[in-house]
Amino acid sequence: MLELTTPVQFVKRIGERIGAALATRGIHTVEDLLYHIPFRYEDRLNPQPIASLTPGAMASILGEVRGSILLRTRSGPIFEMTLGQALSTVKCIWFHGSYLKDRFKPGQLVAVYGKLEPSRSAMAAAAAGIPTSGRFKMIQPQFEIIPDGSNPADSLEIGRIVPVYESLGGTTPWGAKLTSKWTRHVMWSVLEELDKAVAGAPHLEEMWETLPSALVARLNFPTRLAALRAVHFPPAGTPIPDLMSARTPAHRRLIFEELFYLELGLSLKRRRLRERRGTAFATTPAVRQAIKQVLPFHPTEAQKRVLAEIVADMRRPQPMRRLLQGDVGSGKTIVAIEAALIAIENGFQVALMAPTEILATQHYLSARKLLGNAISPSTGRPYRVALLTGSLDPVSKRQTQGRILRGEVQFVIGTHALQEEKADFASLGLVIVDEQHRFGVQQRFNLISKPDSARGRGKQAGIVSEPDVLSMTATPIPRTLALTLYGDLDVSVIDQMPPGRTPIITRRTTADRAADVWGFICKQVAQGRQAYLVYPIIEGPNADQPELDFAHDPEEQQASESASRPQNQAPTARQHTSLGRTGSPASLLAGAGRPRLATMKNPRAEGPTHKPASSTRGPSNPSPAKSPKCAASSALFEKPKLRSATEMYEDLRHGALAGLRLGLLHGRLSADDKEVAMARFQRGEIDVLVSTTVIEVGVDVANATVMVIDHAERFGLAQLHQLRGRVGRGATKSYCILIAGDRVTEQADARLNAMVQTQDGFVLAELDLQQRGPGEFFGTRQTGLPAMQIANPLRDRDLLELAKSEADRFASAPDPTLTPAQIDAVWSRLKNQWQRRYGLLEA
Ligand code: ADP
Ligand code: MG
Fold this sequence. Notes:
It is built from 30 helices and 21 strands. It is α/β, with parallel strands linked by helices and 843 residues long.
């Protein structure tokens, strides 16, 4: 008999091998499996007539196979299948589609899903005034062959609203992929078995319920089992738009449930925090004096406001847990330094953690610059600042650790080595975490829970007080959302840029126009400016990509492969028509215009550009000698090679940028070399810093005005935005140049266009969220938040708020109609869930 807790390998069709594959996706039990819900639905009960469809939209079509053909072209085989409904037809096209050769038989019923595009022949026919039936085509649609003789009455494939699942990965024992169809059948039989179980033992349904019955009733939600059933197999008549936007009662109930437990956990954490002891810092005139004397400029109104919020927290005897949000360049660092001074002047130590050594070093250098000549008003002595990173040699590391332990250092700046190296503090009063989203959730909490050593001044009569924690991040989550999501943190937002900033001009170009880029850099350097050149990899072959947080772009591979196709070879006529659509910038960029670099000199002049077809040769190959033919034919068999920081550094300093002072910076350099390169760039001794994404976060050199990102299509949006944030930090006009392949995926194209169009972190975050999906975006990596299973905090904002208020209510005064057993059930579920899903153990 199946139970929710039954391990998946005991489910029919799954077994040990598939079970193991599912385990890698976090699916261990029947319950886990059921939470793999469909990501879209097809209405195969009332299939849409082709004639009613409009091009440009995604569509699912049910039709019969009219014919198919495999066309051999010079760029590879193309498979075409014609799908028909009465007089209308749609042409489905698959590139490299030989594997489909024998899949379709005329008369077969097939469901396809994809973007509907007008077909060329149709356009030509329409232009000539000839009526035609084949109006549309679909490129690489998803498809499903409906089994022969399916009876709509008892088929999972037809005659109903059909769930479509994301692949669970893995294969069946005989090597077939775990398709959506496979998942559908497994889900169906699991739900059947559960229904059977409940029929035999009705109390089971109540046992499987995870929300208090009173709550379910009050909110008018279906029971859990009913909700799971309806989410997988929606009853006929459920509106498709509601299903697609997860608005059905079943969806809402499951989403609410997830958010309820999240909010309950956060609310519990917040409560516990209020019971803990922190330090009440005093803001005496000496403290004010200390801040005043080091502030290099007038803070913005926003900076003043958030500092006031921080100060209010610090004065309270409970530990502060505050998140400081502010877009790239909004000036978070100085606020952090102000907070640090408050703690230091109160006689406590401060630890500042940065995610990279480069950033830690930079903070160290600027802290020394700011505090170096200042005298602490409360001690009458200079401030003592130390750097502690993983790559210090063991002797100096131990020395520094000793000084920290003896309280001889007041301000310790470092990487996560601060916790890994067991830095014990004499009296740690404040922890600042810069670029918090770069740290894991777990890491963030290690240092927090580190108790003071016994000797500290902060320690009174055997009571350990916890340090305050200020986390900083540039990840722009709307404030109300942040308040609900970071339930255990208070949130401050710097929503204003320091004065005198001019917008960064962002342009997109292609590698074959690199000469313009180099020319532009030379001009800027001649004006005394500096530039960054960022590459996705350090050096060497394609696989060498340690530092790039690749955009999660399933099409990317495909696109880069098609990018290696020669573009200057005369294509066959057929190849021409179809290839013209796949990733052709012409179609993707319709209307967007692609300004040439030359217009950078006059940013307002945006002209249309018609670039000649070119080989894929990049700027790393400056010799013009090769005939285009040669370049093309070799490119045909090579994987597109990524230009790397090391190669380009060598290339440019002897080539296009000879005469300028170039520096190289990447993650594999020793810490010393990194520091030297960074410091020289900072001092203006390097004109152009050729780098990888190690400079992504935090790096601050105001004189740098040009950021060139090569292979920009490979970077995620958050990363592009962060990288661009390295320039535009002074009043001088700054530029960001994105060099991207000629053929990029639609998603990459949208990213690049968004970068060109806006500098608003919120807008970019929204697009990023759309592209990555909430699981990824709201995952630890991006936001320091636990990943969500079904909920999408942006989409489900109303449910998030409902969940929060219900969770608060439950935590403070549970419904009087609830039995103690029901209340206990919620708490124990919470404990399980937090431990298992979010890995956050309650201290
Ligand atoms: P981020 O929020 O991205 O960490 P930083 O703290 O590095 O930004 O600040 C960006 C730049 O703006 C720095 O060069 C900093 O010195 C400068 N800055 C910050 N606040 C102000 C201000 N109030 N007036 C002028 N410049 C400022
Ligand atoms: Mg910063």
